[in-house]
Amino acid sequence: MSTLKIYVDTNYPRPVVQILESIHALQKDKHFEIVRWDDGDIPDNELENSIFLVIDYQKRGLSIPTLKQAEEGYKTIVCKIRDKKIDRFELIMTIIRVWPFILEKKEQLNSSTLLTFKYGGRKLTKHQNAS
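User: That's the sequence. What structure does it adopt?
Assistant: Structure tokens below.
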């Protein structure tokens, strides 16, 4: 089994990404790798074993770049934040609440997967425009 790369958008605060990296550094066998992602191109052969965590500040629905990313075959999981001011503690607690579901669903994700969770939320939801 190859390592699943979890690309984390640069909109996630660096301390939050470092906590995720620290958690995954505890793995005995490396099944997951956390990578800070700056919207650079990912080779097509890596898309199959990759998940992309994105923050979206759109008030309603999802932003066009997020939707386009999913259309281009990126398995995308979006944290929907309505307020630009976030509490880093609440953000990491939100991520930790949904993290087991993200890792559980890795086998079920396909190239058109677009899942969302709300800042402060507890569950992943399939976006209605996803196929």
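The longest helix spans residues 88-104.
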